[in-house]
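Summary for the steering committee. The consortium agreed at its last meeting that each partner would contribute one worked example illustrating the joint modelling workflow. Our contribution is presented below. We chose a case with several input lines so that the handling of multiple components could be demonstrated. No manual editing was applied between input and output; the record is shown as generated.
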Amino acid sequence: MNFLSDPVTFIGNWLTGLVANLGIPKETASAWVTGVAVGILPLLAMLWVLVLIWYERKVIGRLQDRPGPNRVGPFGLIQPVADMLKIFIKEHILPAGIDRIPYNLAPILAVGGVLGMWIVVPFSATVHGVDINVGALYVIAVGAIGTLGIIFAGYSSNNKYALLAAFRVVAQLISYEIPMVLALLVPVLLARSMGMNSIVQAQPVWFILIAPLAALLFFISSIAEVGRSPFDLAEAESEIVAGFNTEYSGLKFGMFYVGEFLHAFTNSLIFTALFLGGWQGPGAEQFPILGFIYFFLKTVVVHFLGIAIRGSMPRFRIDQVMQLNWKLFTPIALAAFSSAALVEKLATNWADAARIGIHFLVNMIILGVVVLIGGRVFRARGIRLDALAQRNRAAVKFSMEKSHDS
Amino acid sequence: MTISWLYIGIFLVVSLGLPAVAIILAGILAPKKPSLEKSMIYECGVETHGETWVQFKAQYYLIGLVFLIFDIETVFLYPWAVAFDRLGVFAVLEGLLFIGILAGGLVYAWKKGAFEWV
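What follows is the complete predicted structure of the assembly.
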């Protein structure tokens, strides 16, 4: 193993050697170096967000037939740096009557919760933060801290519209955790382990081919979790009142902004690790740097898909969002997971290709049933996935009561 | 294995501390000129009207309740999924029965209108 095939481990070993030469035993030196590396990772992630912001603005610009930022530096690359410098020196306007502690804690939690997910991501065969055996569950648990930050922001702002927006956003976020967690169960089931590295290593055949329905559900739910279009009622960028972060200014607002971009990318990271085989690829075990490159490329493709969806779809209403989740996604997630468990147990001793084929077939059957038959049955009975029928009934009742009174 | 959790602890402290330090730094660098107009609550440009902490709609509580039930169900399913190889077909059917009972709960909540209007 030399520098070219695995730079991170090489540098880590070199530093450990340096520290050990000072007389400290090797175990402690290794632990110290790992601790320092773990401490540097949030800083690297925050610096990476600058590149992400540039990438997103360029892609959204191109989708809307305009160039995106191209004045500040070559191809607009310095634009996010300029934006961050500007936001750093803006005044922190404190509105009257706020609740001090939640108000200040909210942006910290929103970003901290997202950064916390980076520690279990397996970047390559040898590079990962820590390899705990409950990585998948940890990701969900830590990701939910951002939700707490949002309700802190809405509640402490002394602004009733921020409060209502925060209620709606938190209802959306907790609702979409259910299909996400259920879809996350499928790779855990297929890999028989919750550890992220184990899930990646169990993917000589990518899990998206074995469980496409679960992958689709996880992808859509993760877009809704971040609060991106089309699920972005939280701070719909073209609206005037900015939702739960109305009363924030300066870097506190910047932190929410950064947190959203980082969350989107982190969700792409997790999706790639779970469903697209993470760092797997030809030669990735021998040359870990290749594994890192494969992981990076796959994540960028998934992230691009998320940005493309953001730039092309109109926004959903809140009642459409909620009913889509509880009436469509949760039943599909339950069905997908149950079928995966059943097929996995009944076809344990079949050949690999046959088992994968059966999994894929059952997924397609569930999708076909829901789309074709379920759609027809619902439409025939007048059941809609939004509240239009209920509102029509309420309007008819109201007009009947009015005609009774007059 | 236990030391992994120490690293996670360090990481979480740093990842919570980094935005905190950045915000404090920005608070030092930024100008501070509070005025009456700037610290008024924003309500599309007019004076605020009525109490801020408005009444909490009951649908949010119902959504939270259903979320809690399904989240706990899923957390129970994780060890079952991890120990899948050691289970027989009977245990798998038991697990599916568990999911079925909770799916019945979902249908009940749907019929009772817990998912309407939010």
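Chain A is about 70% helix and 0% strand. The mean pLDDT of chain A is 86.
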